[in-house]
């Protein structure tokens, strides 16, 4: 069974540009979460999608957005990039929002560098 | 809001026992989870405590006390491969997001 896959592995952008990060969840998983992990820090919740709908978002500005496709894959878009957006962006999936044992399966992340 | 506090770093020798504490200021959550993350790797699920008490999984055990707003992860018979960051996390019914602590970096020395 394939795990959560993210692309690209690394992404280099300059200030003001836009970045698009992609995530494919484990087959059968309908919930996708996005987290930001700045160097040496913890995981900050960005967005949660389930069944194609945005269900919750963290304390990030509106230039962080995304969507979930009918096949449950997801895309994170970051507009007007700023230097402090440089971080590892992690995607995770789980079977569904009704699952209380919140075992998330994480991808290896996209390392975004903003120059 | 909610916050989870963990020590930032712990150092121990091979074969030792390490306890990573996690204190939290939140209520109405389902349970406490623990994740392990090696440098450059993805976080991986270790354990989940939905009820108070001790859960044991091999060399790792996790504990939760809701009345004390406290939990811990116990790493026994430490091995070099246990050098990693360990995160506690809670999920609340409202919003269904998993909130992580800042992580504890465990360094195992020979």
Summarize the structure.
The complex is a heterodimer of chains A (115) and B (110). Chain A is 0% helix and 50% strand.
What does this 3D model show about the protein?
The complex is a heterodimer of chains A (115) and B (110). Chain A has 115 residues and is mainly β. Chain A is 0% helix and 50% strand. In chain A, strands 2, 4, 5, 6, 9, 10 and 11 form a seven-stranded mixed beta sheet that branches. A four-stranded antiparallel beta sheet of chain A has the order 1-3-8-7, with no helix packed on it. Chain B has 110 residues and is mainly β. In chain B, strands 2, 4, 5, 9, 10 and 11 form a six-stranded mixed beta sheet that branches. Chain B starts with a strand and ends with a strand.
Shape assignment of chain A: globular
Helical content of chain B (DSSP H or I, runs of 4+): under 10%
Order of helices and strands of chain B: EEEEEEEEEEE
Please outline the major beta sheet of chain A: 7 strands, mixed
By oligomeric state, this entry counts as heterodimer
Q: Roughly what fraction of the amino acids of chain A lie in strands? A: over 45%
The count of β-strands of chain B is 11
The count of strands of chain A amounts to 11
**What form of chain B results from the Cα inertia axes?**
globular
**Termini Cα gap of chain B:** 41 Å
How many helices of chain A in DSSP terms? 0
Residues in helices of chain A, as a percent range: under 10%
Mean pLDDT of chain B: 90
Uncertain residue ranges of chain A:
none
Main sheet properties of chain B:
6 strands, mixed
Can you count the helices of chain B? 0
Spans of chain B of at least 5 consecutive residues whose pLDDT stays below 50 are: none
Strand content of chain B: over 45%
Radius of gyration of chain A: 13 Å
Layout of helices and strands, plus pairs?
The complex is a heterodimer of chains A (115) and B (110).
Chain A: E1 5-7, E2 10-13, E3 19-24, E4 31-37, E5 44-50, E6 53-57, E7 64-68, E8 74-78, E9 87-94, E10 105-106, E11 110-114
Parallel strand pairs in A: 2-11
Antiparallel strand pairs in A: 1-3, 3-8, 4-5, 4-9, 5-6, 7-8, 9-10, 9-11
Chain B: E1 4-5, E2 9-13, E3 18-24, E4 29-37, E5 44-49, E6 53-57, E7 60-65, E8 70-75, E9 84-92, E10 98-100, E11 104-109
Parallel strand pairs in B: 2-11
Antiparallel strand pairs in B: 1-3, 3-8, 4-5, 4-9, 6-7, 7-8, 9-10, 9-11
């Amino acid at each position: 069974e394939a795990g959560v896959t993210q692309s690209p592995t690394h992404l280099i952008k300059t200030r003001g540009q836009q970045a698009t990060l992609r995530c494919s969840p484990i087959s059968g998983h309908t919930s996708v979460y996005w987290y930001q992990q700045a160097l040496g820090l913890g995981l900050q919740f960005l967005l949660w999608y389930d069944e194609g709908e945005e269900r919750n978002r963290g304390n990030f500005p509106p230039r962080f957005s995304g969507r979930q496709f009918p096949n449950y894959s997801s895309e994170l878009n970051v507009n007007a990039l700023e230097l402090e957006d440089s971080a590892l962006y992690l995607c995770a999936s789980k079977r569904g929002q009704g699952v209380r044992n919140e075992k998330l399966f994480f991808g290896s992340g996209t390392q975004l560098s903003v120059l | 809001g909610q916050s989870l506090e963990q020590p930032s770093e712990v150092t121990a020798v091979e074969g030792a026992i390490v306890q990573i504490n996690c204190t939290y200021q939140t209520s109405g959550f389902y349970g406490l989870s623990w994740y392990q993350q090696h440098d450059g790797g993805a976080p991986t699920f270790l354990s989940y405590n939905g009820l108070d008490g001790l859960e044991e999984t091999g060399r790792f055990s996790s504990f939760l006390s809701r009345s004390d707003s406290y939990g811990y992860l116990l790493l026994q018979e430490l091995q070099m491969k246990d050098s990693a960051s360990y995160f506690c996390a809670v999920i609340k019914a409202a919003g269904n997001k998993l909130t992580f602590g800042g992580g504890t970096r465990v360094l195992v020395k020979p």
